[in-house]
Each structure stands twice: as structure tokens, then as C-alpha cells.
Amino acid sequence: MGLTNGDVEKLETIIKHARPLRRGEHVFHAGERFQSLYVIKTGCVKTYDAQGKHQVLGFHLPGDLVGLDAIDKTCHLCSAQVLESSAICELPFQRFEEIASHLPSLQHQMYRLLSKEISQETEILLLRGKTNAEERLAAFLLHLSQRLSKRGLSATDFYLNMSRNDISSYLGMAVETVSRLFRRFNDQGLLRVSHKHVEILDFAALERVSGMVPISAQRQRMP
Amino acid sequence: MGLTNGDVEKLETIIKHARPLRRGEHVFHAGERFQSLYVIKTGCVKTYDAQGKHQVLGFHLPGDLVGLDAIDKTCHLCSAQVLESSAICELPFQRFEEIASHLPSLQHQMYRLLSKEISQETEILLLRGKTNAEERLAAFLLHLSQRLSKRGLSATDFYLNMSRNDISSYLGMAVETVSRLFRRFNDQGLLRVSHKHVEILDFAALERVSGMVPISAQRQRMP
DNA sequence: AACAAGCGTTGATATAGATCAATCACTGTT
DNA sequence: AACAGTGATTGATCTATATCAACGCTTGTT
Predict the structure, then answer these.
(1) Is A32 on the interface with B (CB under 8 A)?
(2) Is the pTM of this model over 0.90?
(3) What are the tens digits of pLDDT across the range B77-86?
């Protein structure tokens, strides 16, 4: 990603390759002192806030960085939990900054990553802005599908590694509604779902339901 | 903010002080080429996405940076419109990066700003996660109040510079619901509202309605 | 001052989705 | 293999909120 071998070597020296975490284990807890960012190598991580009732904030896939929202804080605001066995690398942030201060290309990458995270959240806000549950779930599935395919996985056939409860919390609806909508989508032939396994059968229809602009026709306008 | 006078001078040379924008004018449009970030000096800016139906993504106050979600893109994804006469400074990003590459303290500040933006969005996700409209509006008002007070303005008495429509879009509910909830809160004595003017009378009660943890009792836990 | 246009409020109605309750199906453990 | 415990599904009911419709109030313009 635009770094020389030497740069990468320097970076490698500070990265800690932790042992793989098993389902249910935490990358960090809310309230813990912020020291590092975490790169997801494989697996899936959910972030959530436990103030009041458990509110899921996001699902993170390989390549994503978690802990970014604590950079300007002393402590983590949310907790990060592994949804399936995951390999996570720890990146001590202070040491990272020291190294990056001499490597403009690394800084540039970091800006891009942070920005990607912001635009990612923007997409989620868009998804959440939908007033009805059907749209939200459809948009969620399409978004997930897109993210998986960007990582070289199938866009049409995948396993959900989060529970129905997590999905419902994330989308701001009741679990029962998630369940019923899955069934409805299934019965309408939009997708085939059984347990955690989802197979999208009709993208166009799902996009129509989601009220989103199909990815194929996404904004390309130039000034 | 930890910069020497010399640093600030350098930064000043690249900042463009645009003429003030009037209500309704745009800072940038979706699809325009990304070149600069924008710092809000005074006023208020809303960001929105016009794909499908107008979806409000955020309200930005003095000190906030807008355009961050485009750093890793060639074009802006959303549009930014001024809600009241606002002074906006333009910060050409490429030139900024060149200058920052020699100024670690400036880099550090930038990371903090980007992170602040991410945690800001996290708060919004929390707010949006609420299933019922009452909680969302209450949380919205508290959040806004808190942001205003951080800027030295009154936390209890302020003017909304966005329309009811903007609020409804932002919170994912119908305009009518916003209107009715304002009335209900007013009648219940939680606040006094007339048109754009809001006066919060009972913070504790509003916090209870919002289902959020009162700011006073916010997480301080240490590992 | 009068007017238009947009914005906000209010009321009536319909319905999507929350909630409550019961059952069923996995998953993992002894 | 049996069991417990959790997670998912389904059904019935009720309520919050979307939707439809009408009206009133501001604000800005001629």
C-alpha cells in the first residue's frame, strides 16, 4: 500500500501478534485504558456499548481497524468482542505515531484508514435513517454482502456470524421482527435463509426493497 | 493546541478564508471532486445524502471539520449545506499533508480530530439505536445541548438551526412525530419549545426519557 | 399591505412493528 | 446419548408511529 520494504519492516517491529481469540472473548472492554489499535486479520468483531441496554455499534471484518474512536480519549468508550475465532494484531498507538512521524506515506495511509472508517459510519447512518424495518434489514444485508465481496468472499452466499439479537440491536428493531423479515424475504424469493446461512437470490429486488441506489448506478458525477 | 507559533503560521498560509456563506448555500456538493476539508468557524452546517430521498447525515457546529469522509475518495459522497450564515475556512488537504509531514504535533492533532469525528458518529449510532421515537428525540436534544455547552453556549437555552424536517430525517421518524413529541415534552414540563427556540427545564427527566446514562455519571472506570 | 410559499402543527385513521407468551431447534457439555 | 441452556421462530395482541389530510402561522417578496 505504497510503503517501502523498510517501512513495512519498521512497522512489523511494533506490531504484536496476539494469540487467536475464541468466540465470546474480548479485544478490549469499555473503560479500559486506550493504548493500541487492533487490526482484524481473520474473523469478525462486534463493537457494542453496554450503558443502559446492550447496543451493538458495528460489525468489523478482516482488514478493519477497531479502537479508532478512542484515539483522542484516555479510555475505550465501547467494548469489542469476537464473534468467531479471530486473529487480531495489536498496534501500540504511541509507538505507531513515533514511527509514522518520519514516514509520510504511512501517515497518508493512516488518514485514509481513518477516513474510510468515517465514510463507513456514514453508510451506516444512511442505512439507519430508513424509517421502516424492511428497508433497514435489506440495506444491511446488501451492505454486508458488498463488504464481504470486497474481501474476496462471495457476495451472494455467506454465513452471518452475528446473532439475530445482535442484528436487531444494530438495526434498532425487535428480534422477532428480524426473524419475521428473514422469513418474508425468504418466502418472497429474495433470498434463501436457514439459520446463519444466507444466499441472496435476487439482488435487484433486495435493492428495490432497501430503497437504496443500486451499487451499479452509484454516483460518478464529476464537477 | 500544542503547536508552536511557527507551525501555526505555516498552517495559516494554506488556509483559505472564504466569504461567509448564507443560509441554503453549499459548502460542497456530492459528486464534486474532493480537494479540501472545511473548518466551521461560526454557524451551522448540515450534511446529507440526496440519493433516494433526502437523508440528513449530521449537523456540524463551530470547530467541526466537514468533508472528512472523502479523504480516501476522489469525490465527496454527501453534500454539505449551511443552515444559517456561516464562516467556513477551506483547508486544501494535499498541501496540509505536505506541511503536516514535517510537524508531528500537527499530525497528532489531525489524528485526534479524525478520531473525535469517529466517536462522534458512534454517539449518533447509539442515539439512533433506540427503538422508540421519544428516546431518540430526547437523546438528540441532550446531545445537542452538550455540544453547544462545550462551545461555551448555553446548555439549557438555544435555537435549533435546523428544520423539523431535517430533525425527522436525521432521527428516522416522521415530521409529524417530531412535532407531537415536542409538544408532549413541552406539556410534560421537560422543556419549553416555541418554533426554533428550546429551553430545557428538566434535564434529569429528559435523561430518563432518553434512556441514556446521565453525563454526570459517565464511565470513568479504570482497568 | 398583501400575497405566496414553505414550514409547522393538529386531527383522524391505518398499520407496521413492539411486546408478551409459548414452542421449537441448535449447541455444547456432562 | 441425554440434557440444559441459549437462541430462533411463530402466534396473538396492542400500541406507537406512519400516513393522509387540512389548516394555521412565519417569513420573505412584490
Answers:
(1) yes
(2) no
(3) 899 999 998 8
